[in-house]
Amino acid sequence: MKRFHRNYRVVRYILYRQTIVNPQDHLWTFIGAFLGIGLIGFTHEVFSSFAISDKVFLIGSFGASAVLIYGATNSPLAQPRNLIGGHLLSAFVGVSIYKLLADYEMLWLNAALAVSLSIVAMQCTKTLHPPGGATALIANLGTPKVLSLGYFYIIYPVFTGVAMLFIIAIVTNNIPKDRSYPNKQLFKLRINYTTDENNWNIRRIRARGYRRLLQRDNKGLRQDK
């Protein structure tokens, strides 16, 4: 029962913190999302007006990315590595699945493999970005214009759109004093975690009585210096 109450308090605290946002953050979230999606849409219309209508620049997964990089700038899933790498990798996986299985006309299999493999690929490369799954799915369920792009789908609309979102995020998320993008605090946490892990390994080695190993390593370090 105590554990249940403790978990309940943790969940309530997290939900409470998620709903408490500085009103100024709402303004900059709106500005960033408006400019990011608006720039991509404007680019799409400009190219369409020049009778280059086969160029597609705006896809649905960019809306989900906008939520992360403008509304949850501190999230590890919203950082540049995840934004850019997740979309590009998922686009490659999605197009590859479509080309390999297009002749079999098994839409459910294309969709399932594209999403599942893109998730695993993002996990392996530490570029997990939830909208990337939608990018892989669109490569198999998109309009005929999108499907006809082939591997050019990775360049446009994916890379061009991600680049626009990223540039706008760098500008708008760093104007307020209490916002930063990329989130520098995440890098500090990773460094501290690595240091703590190394210290724990040293204590474990000493506890097992491998002091000679430590002395030999120290001599090697002194010689290198």
Per-chain topology:
Blueprint: H1 2-19, H2 23-49, H3 61-71, H4 80-101, H5 107-124, H6 131-141, H7 144-147, H8 152-172, H9 184-207, H10 211-224
Which features would summarize this protein structure in a list?
mainly alpha, 225 residues, 10 helices
Describe this structure in words.
This protein has 225 residues and is mostly helical. The chain has helices spanning 2-19, 23-49, 61-71, 80-101, 107-124, 131-141, 144-147, 152-172, 184-207, 211-224. α2 (23-49) runs antiparallel to α3 (61-71), α3 (61-71) packs antiparallel against α6 and α5 packs antiparallel against α6. The longest helix is centred in the N-terminal third of the chain and has 27 residues, at 23-49. It starts with a helix and ends with a helix.
Helix content: over 70%
Major beta-sheet overview: none
- What is the terminal separation in angstroms? 57 Å
The helix tally amounts to: 10
Instruction: Kindly provide the radius of gyration, computed on alpha-carbon positions and rounded to a whole number of angstroms.
Output: 23 Å
Overall shape: it is globular
Strand content: under 5%
The average pLDDT score comes to: 82
Structural class: mainly alpha
What is the succession of H and E elements?
Answer: HHHHHHHHHH
Q: How many strands appear in the DSSP assignment?
A: 0
Question: What is the compact description of this entry?
Answer:
The protein has ten helices and no strands. The protein is mainly alpha-helical and 225 residues long.
